[in-house]
Design brief:
This protein has 350 residues and is mainly α. 70% of the residues lie in helices and 4% in strands.
Length: 350
C-alpha cells in the first residue's frame, strides 16, 4: 500500500480495458499530492490581504505556538487512523497526563519531583493508550466504541480525582511551555522533533510499513505474517504517549492544570488528519500533511478571530471544512475502487 503519490507517479496514465485509450490524469494527481499546500498558501494570502497584522513574524510564530499541542496530538491520531482505527479519548488522556504532571509541578523542585513531573504524563498516556489498543486488538471491539467509552471513563476519573484546577505551578515547570530557544518557542521545537521522528518511523522502518499494510488491507497483512493485533496495540500506545507529551506541554504553557482541559480536542485532531489528506478508511496519509492540516485549521481559526467573526460562525466554517475534506476522501476512495474494479487499472508510464 503506497503511502502517497511519488513524483514519478505524476507521469502515470489510466488505461482503459475496453479500447486501450490513454486518459492522462496528471492534474488530479497534482491536486492529490500538493492540493493541501496550495490551499494553505491561498488561505494565508487571503487573510494577509484582508486582516491587518496577520502577516507578521510575531503572529506567525504565535500561530505555530498555538498549533504545537494540537499538532502533537494529530501525529498520534495519524498512526491510529492509518491502521483504520479512531481515537476519541485523546482529550481525556491529555487531561489525565496534565493533571498528574501539575500535581507534581507545584511541589518543590527536588530532582525526584522534576523527573516525575516530566516522566509521569508520558507513562500515564502510554498506559491509557495500551488499554485502548488491547480492547481494540485482542478484545475485538470496534475502535469507535472503545475510545468513546474510554473518553468518558478517563474524563470521569480525573474530574473525580481532582476537580479543582491547580495554579501557581513552579517556574521551572513553565520553562517547557513558555520559553524560547532563540526566536523559536520550545513547544514548536518539540512539535518539529515529534514530526521528524514520526516521519522516520512511518517511512523508514518495518513497523511503519506494517501500519500502512494493516490499514490498507488487514486480511492481506495477516496473511503476509504481520501480527495485526500487536501493530494495533502499538499505534494506540503511540497515540497515548503523544497525548501525554501534549498534556505536559499544554499544562506548562497554560501554567495551570485542569481536569476539564482539552474537551473537544479529539474532533480537531481527527479533522487535522483528514484535512491533511489521510483516509478515514486507513492506509493513506503522511505526517507532514497532517501537520499542514493542523496548521491550516489554526490559520483559519486565527484569521476569523482577527476578523471579529462570531464564535458560532467560526465553528460552522470549520465544520464545513471538515465535511469537505471527508467528501474529498470519499471521492478518492470511490474513484480508486472504480479503477480496481475492472474498467480501469493503474499503469505506471515507462
Amino acid at each position: 500500500m503506497p503511502k502517497s503519490v511519488s513524483e514519478s507517479d505524476l507521469k502515470a496514465v489510466w488505461v482503459s480495458d475496453r479500447n486501450g485509450e490513454r486518459l492522462h490524469s496528471v492534474a488530479p494527481l497534482i491536486l492529490r499530492e500538493y492540493g493541501i499546500y496550495i490551499i494553505l498558501v491561498i488561505i494565508t494570502l487571503a487573510f494577509s490581504f484582508t486582516t491587518k497584522g496577520f502577516a507578521t513574524i510575531n503572529n506567525l510564530i504565535l500561530i505555530l505556538l498555538q498549533v504545537s499541542v494540537m499538532g502533537i496530538i494529530s501525529v498520534g491520531m495519524l498512526f491510529v487512523i492509518l491502521s483504520k482505527g479512531i481515537d476519541l479519548s485523546v482529550g481525556s488522556i491529555l487531561a489525565i497526563a496534565g493533571m498528574f504532571s501539575g500535581l507534581l509541578a507545584k511541589q518543590e523542585p527536588t530532582p525526584v519531583n522534576v523527573a516525575l513531573a516530566f516522566v509521569i504524563p508520558l507513562l500515564l498516556g502510554t498506559i491509557c493508550g495500551l488499554l485502548n489498543g488491547y480492547l481494540v486488538s485482542w478484545g475485538r471491539l470496534p475502535p469507535l466504541i472503545v475510545t468513546l467509552g474510554t473518553m468518558y471513563a478517563y474524563r470521569g476519573f480525573i474530574v473525580w480525582y481532582h476537580v479543582n484546577p491547580i495554579y501557581q505551578l513552579q517556574p521551572w515547570y513553565r520553562i517547557l511551555g513558555q520559553q524560547k530557544i532563540g526566536p523559536i518557542p520550545i513547544p514548536v521545537i518539540i512539535l518539529l522533533s515529534v514530526t521528524g521522528i514520526a516521519s522516520l518511523v512511518l517511512n523508514r522502518t518495518r513497523f511503519g510499513r506494517y501500519v500502512y499494510a494493516v490499514g490498507g488491507n488487514e486480511d492481506a497483512a495477516r496473511a503476509a505474517g504481520i501480527n495485526v493485533e500487536l501493530v494495533k496495540l502499538c499505534v494506540y500506545s503511540i497515540s497515548g504517549l503523544l497525548c501525554g507529551l501534549a498534556g505536559l506541554v499544554f499544562t506548562s504553557r497554560l501554567g495551570a492544570a485542569q481536569s476539564i482541559s482539552a474537551i473537544g480536542f479529539e474532533m480537531v485532531a481527527i479533522a487535522s488528519v483528514v484535512v491533511g489528506g489521510a483516509s478515514l478508511f486507513g492506509g493513506r496519509g503522511t505526517v507532514g500533511k497532517t501537520i499542514v492540516g493542523a496548521l491550516l485549521m489554526q490559520i483559519v481559526q486565527s484569521g476569523l478571530v482577527m476578523l471579529d467573526v462570531p464564535s458560532p460562525i467560526q465553528q460552522a466554517i470549520l465544520g464545513f471544512i471538515i465535511i469537505f475534506a471527508v467528501w474529498i476522501d470519499l471521492f478518492i476512495q470511490r474513484r480508486d475502487g472504480t479503477k480496481r474494479s475492472g474498467w480501469f487499472f493503474f499503469h505506471k508510464a515507462k
